[in-house]
Amino acid sequence: MSGGEHETPTGERIVQRGLWFEEFVVGTTYEHRPGRTITEADNVLFTTQTMNTQALHLDAAYAAGTEFGERLVNSMFTLSTVVGLSVAQLTQGTIVANLGFSEIRFPKPLFHGDTLYAETLVTEKRESKSRPTEGIVTLEHTGRNQHGDVVAVAVRRTLVQKRPGEPS
């Protein structure tokens, strides 16, 4: 070898990606790991960046006097993180667009120091009528804290690429 050249091992190269439309199976639940421990800094940064001045997220003295006794993690941060935890496993590089969210709920609060885990159930899929190289997949995302308590649920419809070269 001359200077600057490097030997490369032979074999297949694999790039992390999400699932193609054909790989989604209705009824399958994906557990997304690792989880994400939520810090005070995460919550305050997200809350202030999004101009959400709710005292329950920012004012420790105020929150101490509520039924929760402490500040709550912003529910939009919780939702964003639950969806984010699913990306590498399900949609990295294969999603075309989010089509919408529905049935969003937050049954229990999330607090600073809690660890958020996510799982996704594939509830429906169909080929796109107007885009022959894509399909619509409906996902139900669930976020749980370290105790297994459900802290967020959301149904999301996504437009996903079909495997390249697959017949329509």
UniProtKB/TrEMBL annotation:
Coiled coil: none annotated. Residues 26-143 form the MaoC-like domain. Gene3D superfamilies: Hotdog Thioesterase. It comes from the Bacteria. Transmembrane segments: none annotated. It holds the Pfam family MaoC_dehydratas. PANTHER family: BETA-METHYLMALYL-COA DEHYDRATASE, MONOAMINE OXIDASE-RELATED. Belongs to the enoyl-CoA hydratase/isomerase family. This is Acyl dehydratase. It comes from Rhodococcus triatomae.
